[in-house]
Amino acid sequence: MAYVLQVNFKMDGPFGEDMAASFAELAESINQEEGFLWKIWIEDPDTKETGGIYLFETKEAAQAYQEMHTKRLASFGIEEIDAKIFSINSTLTEINKGPVTSFTQNDKE
Q1: CATH number for the domain formed by residue range(s) 3-108
Q2: pLDDT digits (tens, 9 = 90+) for 25-65
Q3: Helices and strands in the chain, H and E counts
Q4: CA-to-CA distance for 11 and 81, rounded, in angstroms?
């Protein structure tokens, strides 16, 4: 079963294309994390909030990444990190065309 990790935190920037240029190397490194499947980067420059929605193969992989990433963000001086791990209701997600069906097929077997 796949698991979602949701991470949100405040940051002064950069955002948009500047963020994409600044964090491209970090984005590439995330692809190498154990059990990582995909990430959606999120941002709101108006509230200075950013983060991501990640999908991992296992809860253990999500927990390991959450621990490492929280420490990394803290080393950058980022505080008040909101990170949560969720299981996926694949039946309802499939109805709403969520991009996780191929990762949650075992839920239905």
Answers
A1: 3.30.70.100
A2: 999 999 999 999 999 999 999 999 999 999 999 999 999 99
A3: 3, 4
A4: 10
